[in-house]
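Customer escalation, tier 2.

The customer says the design service returned an amino acid string that "doesn't look like it belongs to this structure." They asked us to rerun it and document both sides in this ticket. The original structure tokens are below, unchanged.
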């Protein structure tokens, strides 16, 4: 996430004493049973995280050998669960970045002959910042929370819909490159899809979802909360207070700092980022300490398991319920 660095540094300096996830918390949720209500589990997410945030991938900087390894992993994953390439292949090469970099874009076509022409785009960036100045001999910024966590959330949603095809509207699953270079991947895809006159209904982005918030009465917040009724619609379908408002996100204008924003600019449709980084619960933004073993896999599984039915209901509603506020 492209967050104001001084804001992060200031807030985390105040709260860093309580930011690390304890060993007892990280895996406290047991592997969830395979049922219609449990679409993923902590063990499965942990296995994915341990690859995408491993040292072998060297921090997944856009254009690097490490992100190429992540891209191959994502391609194989989408193919394995019958998510089709949206373009000729999953890879869509960026033209706005000096090195070779590409978004990975798949689609699950809707099963309704009319509603399938309306699209919901679900996205996350899979790049990070690569290698940086060493701290205690460690120079790899692994990017577990930022943003292997969001990437895994999107992949697990793609797995469910690819395997079951329960969606009436079509779902595009996009993993963006070069977010850390200035939202370049999402800017490129948003412009390209607009030029192709895609009928985009809404864009749902997932960013830094690896650790839970504390002392909140909701599980996840969205950026740009006041700009649409997405939270209201989501909570209706979740039948609980799933999505909330984080004042700090508005204060630091996070709405414009992740991959939702280019779709808002190009299409003028509801475009939001789901996030659980609240400036107090994680001290390793853009640091070498952003490691897999600090992620809360039970929390991540819960987020996916509660979000899939919401997306399913949004995709299957008779009318487009998510509206921009005046």
């Amino acid at each position: 996430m492209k967050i104001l660095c001084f804001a992060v540094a200031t807030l985390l300096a105040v709260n860093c004493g309580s930011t690390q996830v304890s060993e007892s918390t990280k895996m406290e949720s047991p592997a969830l049973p395979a049922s219609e209500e449990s679409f993923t589990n902590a063990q499965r997410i942990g296995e994915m995280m341990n690859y995408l945030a491993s040292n072998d991938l060297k921090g997944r900087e856009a254009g690097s050998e490490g992100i190429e390894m992540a891209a191959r992993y994502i391609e194989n994953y989408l193919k394995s669960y019958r998510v089709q390439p949206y373009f000729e292949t999953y890879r869509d090469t960026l033209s706005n970045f000096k090195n070779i970099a590409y978004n990975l874009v798949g689609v699950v076509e809707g099963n309704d002959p009319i509603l399938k022409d309306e699209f919901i785009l679900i996205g996350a960036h899979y790049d990070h910042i690569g290698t940086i100045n060493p701290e205690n001999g460690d120079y790899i910024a692994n990017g577990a929370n930022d943003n292997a966590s969001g990437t895994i959330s999107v992949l697990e949603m793609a797995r469910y819909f690819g395997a079951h095809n329960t969606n009436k509207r079509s779902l595009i699953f996009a993993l963006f490159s070069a977010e850390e270079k200035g939202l370049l991947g999402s800017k490129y895809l948003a412009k390209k899809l607009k030029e192709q006159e895609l009928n985009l209904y809404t864009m749902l982005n997932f960013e830094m979802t690896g650790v839970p918030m504390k002392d909140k009465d909701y599980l996840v917040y969205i950026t740009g909360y006041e700009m649409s009724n997405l939270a209201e619609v989501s909570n209706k379908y979740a039948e609980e207070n799933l999505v909330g408002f984080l004042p700090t996100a508005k204060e630091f204008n996070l709405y414009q700092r992740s991959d939702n924003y280019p779709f808002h600019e190009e299409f003028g449709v509801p475009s939001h980022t789901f996030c659980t980084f609240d400036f107090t619960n994680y001290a390793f933004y853009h640091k070498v300490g952003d490691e897999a073993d600090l992620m809360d896999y039970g929390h991540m599984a819960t987020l996916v398991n509660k979000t899939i039915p919401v997306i399913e209901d949004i995709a299957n509603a008779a009318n487009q319920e998510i509206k921009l506020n005046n």
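Tier 2 assessment: The sequence is consistent with the input. The chain has one domain: 5-316. Residues 4-36 have pLDDT under 50 and may be disordered. Sent an explanation to the customer and offered a walkthrough call.
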